[in-house]
Prior knowledge:
Layout: H1 8-16, E1 24-28, E2 37-42, E3 45-52, E4 64-72, E5 80-83, E6 91-99, E7 102-107, H2 118-131, H3 141-155, E8 162-166, E9 180-185, E10 191-199, E11 202-207, E12 219-228, H4 234-237, H5 240-258, H6 296-304, E13 311-312, E14 320-321, E15 329-330, E16 332-342, E17 346-359, E18 362-367, E19 372-378, H7 391-405
Parallel strand pairs: 14-19
Antiparallel strand pairs: 1-2, 1-8, 2-3, 3-4, 4-5, 5-6, 6-7, 7-8, 9-10, 9-19, 10-11, 11-12, 12-16, 13-15, 16-17, 17-18, 18-19
Amino acid sequence: MEVVGLSSKDLYVQLLHPNRHILGLWQPDIGPYGGLLNVVVDGFFIIGWMFLPPHDPRVDDVMRRRPLFRIHMWETSKATVECMYGHKGPHKGDIQIVKKDEFSTKCNQTDHHRMSGGRQEEFRTWLEEEWGRTLEDIFNEHMQELILMKFIYTSQYDNCLTYRRIYLPPYLPGDLLRPGLFKGTYGSHGLEIVMLSFHGRRAKGTKLTGDPNVPAGQLTLEIDLSRPIQLPEIEKQRSMEELSRLVLEVHEQVQRERNPAQSGSTEPEPGAEGQEGGGREENQNGLGAASATPTTTEGAEASASPLPAPQPFVLPLGVMARNEVYPRTCKICFYGTGLIAGHGFTSPEHTPGIFILFDDNRFGFIWLELKSFSLYSRITDTLQYAEAPTLEAFEEMLKSMQSWTS
């Protein structure tokens, strides 16, 4: 403390105590794109680190991080806020705590974000940092449009952003694997960050970063842990028709359980349930127990029991995958749905697919309708001050997230 001429009391009173409410994990309001910010104490600084996925499609690579702002007391007896955005070093900024679990940042010198070569140079630099390549390297015209759209949209904020608090999902005994944050492949949109959480016999994948089709905050995956799917032997796994048959058999039974009148039954089958209240999610699945699977309680216990020995796995022919390097064995598979939508989140629909658990740190999802495969890999970075104070606080946050970007 003597080196910088600060007493412990000054540091606490002027820096740590006034800014204690912004420590933790946050999602920026950047339209459909979202993000992941961790505000931490680092020596004599409070720093806001934005975490970015690795370059597409290297899903197993480590996360990248970039400082967006910092607060310190190096030069005055009062805390100084600096914007770290751009390539010209720290410059003047402001932070305002809007309300509980929400704060805003403002850059007071946005000229520091500009480059001498104008927008063209800014775009080239951003593209190299964001995607690790040049526009000439990207031959897909649709992908070029998506990239340009993201640059135009995100750069207009100039680091003047509003952040809302989020928490890491709690881990409960009996969860299929440790919940947490994963980076996943999303076709032309590149890599996105997804939060995997467990809710009894269901698992949910919620987007922390998103795209113009399915924005951040939306439920991208919902997995029914009471409906395991037994993969056929390796030769038959190459057949998309065989995989579709297995998944659609379960999907049709789900629909019958949700609409018993249409199937001629007046009683719902054991384990069937309707939508949850409170607007928690758009639950398109009647998540009951299939005829050859456990009932509700047994299904939850089955997911908690020791998993079977790994079995060979191969993607069906004709399924698109951003990353051709994927695990060739898996532990277990479940029926689930994935959310797809048109540009601008139009006509959203939960479509059937299959969740594949490869190991404790990787899982996949085959989107039947898109004939596409997403591979997800665990984010292993240590994120500070990110635990939910209670299970109820996490559930409430999850409920609110969809409304932030809807």
